[in-house]
């Protein structure tokens, strides 16, 4: 697979950013990489000692004896909640604001580190009193609230393994996860506010628990949020506010092995049935801390805002654990980017003087669309001068979306950390470092120090820069997935497949490295590679070309079997101006076909162009191309759609012009 087109725009980190940066300049970056290269154990061991409080220090860094079930810092003991909260209070940050919570309706609540510690301790004591102990699994089914973070931290404090289920999931999806993790308790809320609406949580929980397969669940803890009338089952259900009321505000943490599971989290389901990813305590926390420092260059004065939900790994690493473990002030937002209007993010950055803003390409694309004909919600209509750094995560960011973000949100002054990573990796893997790496729109640039990312062919052999291939990681790293919960065989098969030699971590994404710079660009999921007349192409390049057309807000590209060319390109497009029909649609389709032909080349010209009001997305906002492939073929969707956000859109996209 070779790139069809070269992106040549380069943006250097601003000089005054470099001056104060944690990793100031490429030489500093290369020095760290060289240290890891020279003495891998020494590099990680030193960082782990420096960044984490160990109750009992570890004596061995990495144990590879049962590979690929790697173990890090195993005989050391620590506690994630202690590292996030007690440590800050002990360092004199007790009165510092840990969380600026903005509710859906705009109400703002600030919580200091001291208050956060007390709330977590009370909840941890209450959980212990109910008999929940270290190693038990607890499902958390809550929205973006302070209580959600308290619940996660309280589990961590007593060694219980949490598994957060996004508050938008159905009863069935929730039930599957409750059963799969073997939960003994569920922590939820009566309801949640989203976009001006009050939505149920407890009622869905009751439905999930109604079948008897969830028999291990002995307790349901309900946080009062919306005041919605709900049923409380005697002997099982209690109010979170009641059980913490009389608890002590201190709680001795459970000192666990670094390898003790901190949480289980299900992947987004973009490529298939979600996998229950198990993470460790020590290695996971180390990487959450280091990436806060390296990628986000976090400083004591920063106001950090990650817009993810605690239901996704981004919310775990960059809301619940990372920012608190480095003593930062962070914004936690309950609502949605489009309520009360599509200027909500910009309004909040202005109001809270956010300095670091981390969001997803899907949000950026939708806000580009919303502001394309409404100046009032355009970022330029707000004072965003507090920002000094931007981030992107979740999907490849199209170069044109990158440019818009850079210019309109970052005022052409803020570096963008395009962070490539996965639920399985625990934290960032490939990303520009804001004070070091020259940026190229659409490229996640270079691996973080210590991360041995590479591109190989289907037999696991290195491919030269300039040729596309399969993205792998060659050595274990501290925050990597430990196993798939209840399914170690699937873990080995999915991530360390025999075909690649059994010792390379397979990310599942295709990528290409630039010949000159060595920069990585993600070309799309491995399963999505197109083969047209023998030319192998990534989906990303054609999608980005379409998004660069002024009419287009979003695009997804898939292949469809074709007698003549082996595979034909089928594109699904969302226009900024809404869905065209009839002759209009035909006209735009021809225009877009010619556009791709001109910009990339005739080989990439789509055969089939379809329009929708939206694209099928996971609840974390990722395009589900696997469903589009089925639709492009004209078949019925029979795959797992448990994480599909908008099933109704499928019908619309069946319509070919
Ligand atoms: P599933 O594994 O269930 O199919 P998923 O892969 O979407 O779902 P996540 O772990 O949430 O689940 O997402 C990780 C994936 O997101 C990566 O493998 C990659 O495809 C994509 N991704 C995340 N960040 C970036 C980025 N900055 N650039 C390109 N792709 C990214
Ligand atoms: Mg995945």
Automatic annotation (TrEMBL):
CoA binds at residues 194-197, 314, 533. ATP binds at residues 394-396, 418-423, 509, 525, 536. It catalyses: acetate + ATP + CoA = acetyl-CoA + AMP + diphosphate. It comes from the Bacteria. Keywords: Acetylation, ATP-binding, Ligase, Magnesium, Metal-binding, Nucleotide-binding. One of its GO terms (molecular function) is acetate-CoA ligase activity. Mg(2+) binds at residues 547, 552. Acetylated. Deacetylation by the SIR2-homolog deacetylase activates the enzyme. Its EC number is 6.2.1.1. GO terms for cellular component: cytosol. Residues 541-622 form the AMP-binding enzyme C-terminal domain. The modification N6-acetyllysine is found at residue 622. Its cofactor is Mg(2+). Residues 91-477 form the AMP-dependent synthetase/ligase domain. Catalyzes the conversion of acetate into acetyl-CoA (AcCoA), an essential intermediate at the junction of anabolic and catabolic pathways. AcsA undergoes a two-step reaction. In the first half reaction, AcsA combines acetate with ATP to form acetyl-adenylate (AcAMP) intermediate. In the second half reaction, it can then transfer the acetyl group from AcAMP to the sulfhydryl group of CoA, forming the product AcCoA. Belongs to the ATP-dependent AMP-binding enzyme family. NCBIfam families: Ac_CoA_lig_AcsA, PRK00174.1. This is Acetyl-coenzyme A synthetase. The lineage of its organism: Bacteria, Pseudomonadati, Pseudomonadota, Betaproteobacteria, Burkholderiales.
């Amino acid at each position: 697979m070779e790139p069809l087109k070269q992106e040549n725009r380069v943006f250097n980190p601003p000089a005054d950013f470099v001056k104060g940066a944690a990793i100031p300049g490429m030489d500093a970056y290369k020095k760290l990489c060289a240290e890891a290269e020279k003495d891998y154990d020494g590099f990680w061991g030193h960082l782990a000692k420096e960044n984490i409080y160990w109750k009992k220090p570890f004596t061995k860094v990495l144990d590879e004896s049962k590979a690929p079930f790697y173990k890090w810092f195993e005989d050391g003991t620590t506690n994630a909640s202690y590292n996030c909260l007690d440590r800050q209070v002990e360092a004199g940050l007790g009165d510092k604001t840990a969380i600026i919570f903005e509710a859906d309706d705009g109400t703002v609540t600030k919580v200091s580190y001291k208050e956060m510690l007390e709330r977590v301790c009370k909840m941890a004591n209450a959980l212990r009193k109910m008999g929940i102990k270290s190693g038990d699994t607890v499902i958390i089914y809550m929205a973006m609230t302070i209580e959600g973070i308290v619940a996660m931290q309280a589990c961590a404090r007593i060694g219980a393994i949490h598994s957060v289920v996004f508050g938008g999931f159905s009863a069935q999806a929730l039930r599957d996860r409750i059963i799969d993790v073997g939960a003994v308790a569920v922590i939820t809320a009566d309801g949640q506010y989203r976009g001006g609406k009050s939505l149920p949580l407890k009622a869905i929980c009751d439905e999930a628990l109604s079948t008897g397969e969830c028999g291990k669940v002995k307790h349901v803890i309900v946080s009062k949020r919306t005041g919605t009338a709900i049923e409380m089952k005697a002997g099982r259900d209690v109010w979170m506010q009641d059980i913490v009321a009389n608890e002590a505000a201190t709680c001795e943490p459970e000192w666990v092995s670094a390898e003790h599971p901190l949480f289980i989290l299900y992947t987004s389901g973009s490529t298939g049935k979600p996998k229950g990813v198990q993470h460790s305590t020590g290695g996971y926390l180390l990487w959450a801390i280091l990436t806060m420092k390296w990628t986000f260059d976090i400083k004591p004065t920063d106001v950090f805002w990650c817009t993810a939900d605690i239901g996704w790994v981004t919310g775990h690493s960059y809301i619940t654990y990372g920012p608190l473990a480095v003593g930062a002030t962070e914004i936690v937002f309950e609502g949605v980017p489009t309520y009360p209007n599509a200027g909500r993010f910009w309004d909040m950055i202005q109001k809270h003087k956010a300095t670091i803003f981390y969001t997803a390409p899907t949000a950026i694309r939708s806000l580009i669309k919303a502001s394309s004909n409404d100046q009032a919600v355009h970022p330029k209509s707000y004072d965003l001068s507090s920002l000094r750094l931007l981030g992107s995560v979740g999907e490849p960011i199209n170069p044109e979306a990158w440019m818009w973000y850079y210019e309109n949100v970052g005022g052409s002054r803020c570096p963008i950390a395009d962070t490539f990573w996965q639920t399985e990796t625990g934290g960032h893997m490939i990303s520009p470092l804001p004070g070091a790496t020259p940026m190229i729109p659409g490229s996640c640039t270079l691996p973080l120090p210590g991360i041995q990312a590479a591109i190989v062919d289907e037999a696991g052999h290195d491919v030269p820069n300039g040729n596309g291939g399969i993205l792998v990681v060659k050595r274990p790293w501290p925050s990597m997935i430990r196993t798939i919960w209840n399914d170690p065989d699937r873990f080995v098969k999915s991530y360390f497949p025999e075909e690649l030699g059994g010792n390379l971590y397979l990310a599942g994404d295709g990528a290409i490295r630039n010949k000159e710079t060595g920069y990585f660009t993600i070309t799309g999921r491995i399963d999505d590679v197109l083969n047209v007349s023998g030319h192998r192409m990534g989906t990303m390049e054609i999608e980005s070309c379409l998004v660069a057309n002024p009419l287009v807000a979003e695009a997804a590209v898939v292949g469809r079997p074709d007698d003549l060319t082996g595979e034909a390109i089928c594109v699904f497009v969302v226009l900024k101006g809404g869905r065209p029909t009839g002759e209009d649609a035909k006209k735009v389709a021809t225009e877009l076909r010619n556009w791709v032909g001109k910009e990339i080349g005739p080989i990439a010209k789509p055969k089939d162009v379809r329009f929708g009001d939206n694209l099928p997305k996971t609840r974390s906002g990722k395009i589900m191309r696997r469903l589009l492939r089925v639709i492009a073929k004209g078949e019925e969707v029979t795959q797992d759609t448990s994480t599909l956000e908008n099933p109704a859109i499928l019908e619309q996209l069946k319509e070919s012009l």
